[in-house]
Amino acid sequence: MMQRGWLGSVACLVGLLVAAPASAQVKIGVVDLQRALQSVNDGKKAKGKLEKEVQKRQKDFDRMQDDLKKLKDELEQKIAVMTEDVKRQKLQDYQRRLMEVQDYYLNNQRELAEMEQNLTRPIFERFHRILQEIGAKEKFTLIVDRQAVVFSDAGTDLTERLIQEYNAGKGK
């Protein structure tokens, strides 16, 4: 719902720009920031670093899940012959470990999202500086992210240029 409001705002802004006086030329550029992020060298490095961390944590998570499954299977097989005290203790242990696995998963999701943000923030900041420079030099009225655009002429797409200028060292 929030995206509709945002897209509506962009549509209104574009409408206002199109309705601008005929003497003022409107020049709108489009850039696919996600494609640029995946294409620039630093973005590829960040993705590799993040994937390596995800794999490492996934192994730990899989091990924890396997241990939990073994405990559950043991409980199911032996529950009929256990005393009430042992049964209660094993069930509490199982519930505690289940909560630990859930907490581990949730904490990892949060930490990985934070890691991704920390790795990509400097890249997006450079993108912003490069696009500011392009916009000022070439007198763009507006440069928008491709995700906010339904249609655009291929001639207005600045993504490849952004990638090339970033990889060439601009925007530092």
Features:
mainly alpha; 2 strands; single chain; disordered N terminus; 172 residues; 73% helix; two-stranded parallel sheet; rod-shaped; Protein Binding, DinI Protein, Chain A
Shape: rod-shaped
Count the beta strands.
2
Q: Give a quick account of the main beta sheet: strands, pairing sense, barrel closure.
A: 2 strands, parallel
Q: CATH class, please?
A: Alpha Beta
**Which range does the strand content fall in?**
under 5%
CATH superfamily: Skp domain
- Spatial arrangement of strands, main beta sheet: 1-2
Determine the structural class based on helices, strands and strand pairing.
mainly alpha
If you average the pLDDT, what whole number results? 88
The helicity comes to over 70%
Structure explained in plain terms:
The chain has 172 residues and is mainly α. It contains 5 helices and 2 strands, in the order αβαααβα. It has one domain: Protein Binding, DinI Protein, Chain A. Strands 1-2 form a two-stranded parallel sheet. The longest helix is centred in the middle third of the chain and has 54 residues. The radius of gyration is 26 Å and the shape is rod-shaped.
Write the layout of secondary structure elements.
Layout: H1 2-18, E1 28-31, H2 33-39, H3 41-78, H4 84-137, E2 142-145, H5 159-167
Parallel strand pairs: 1-2
In short:
With 172 residues, the chain is mainly α. It has five helices and two strands.
